[in-house]
Amino acid sequence: MKLLVPVKRVVDYNVKVRVKADGSGVETAGVKMSMNPFDEIAVEEAVRLKEKGAATEIVAVSIGVQQCQETLRTALAMGADRAVLVLTEESPEPLAVAKLLRALVDREQPGMVIMGKQAIDDDMNATGQMLAGLLGWAQGTFASKVELSDGVATVTREVDGGLETVALTLPAIITADLRLNEPRYASLPNIMKARKKPLETIAPGDLGVDVTPRLTTLRVAEPPVRQSGVKVGSVAELVAKLRAEAKVI
Ligand code: AMP
């Protein structure tokens, strides 16, 4: 079975995000970029399935600017077999990404798409669900455990208040949550090997998809600075402040 793993290039999770001076977006110039952490978990899960013999080939795909090649090389160094870059200067919205992925699914015919539950830049948490909807495939979102047998993926999902286990008839979409696994670090020999693995570049038009944005960002702003607290000397002082200043009692 072939696995398709979409990986997004995002601002590294250790970087303190800064808003551009003109409020038009988030500063990315000179900022460290990395693979979206949930996508690393998805790549790791795909590699483990291949190591167990449940998958035969892993295709990583990234949609974005030329530098997404670095993200794809990371996926290849972790164990993906080949990569596809859908090159665009736009920052495609989830529906456009889902349409591009659907076109790639039609071309590649994977048995499963394993992806992140959300990209940590825009926090959309939408692409996997939209892709499942477009394809009419089963979906196991927020996966913390995946088991495969006889054309069925048994997925444990992290839902509010507990865990839910669903059985998906393949082909299916799986979106990875934090506790699914701990991604490996690529070893130096694997990083070297990854340089020679195939990386194909195509345009959204080659897949027949228009990625023109449908949303306009009006303004991006920092969250308001939190007021610092005060220490009170006694319960009486606390009650007085709650009554006179906070006016909550
Ligand atoms: P989102 O719905 O934007 O939060 O993203 C959910 C998942 O969709 C991510 O974790 C990725 O696996 C995938 N994805 C979203 N945007 C892209 C992109 N530009 N390139 C590759 N994969 C993407």
TrEMBL record:
Pfam families documented for this protein: ETF (PF01012)
GO molecular function: ATP binding; electron transfer activity
Keyword terms, alphabetized: Electron transport, Transport
Cofactors: AMP
PROSITE patterns for this protein: ETF_BETA (PS01065), SIGMA54_INTERACT_4 (PS50045)
Residues of the Sigma-54 factor interaction domain: 58-227
InterPro entries hit by this protein: ET-Flavoprotein_bsu_CS, ETF_a/b_N, ETF_b, ETF_beta_N, Rossmann-like_a/b/a_fold, Sigma_54_int
Organism domain of life: Bacteria
Any GO BP: carboxylic acid catabolic process
Subunit description: Heterodimer of an alpha and a beta subunit.
Family that this chain belongs to: Belongs to the ETF beta-subunit/FixA family.
Function: The electron transfer flavoprotein serves as a specific electron acceptor for other dehydrogenases. It transfers the electrons to the main respiratory chain via ETF-ubiquinone oxidoreductase (ETF dehydrogenase).
Designated name of the protein: Electron transfer flavoprotein subunit beta
Organism: Lichenicoccus roseus
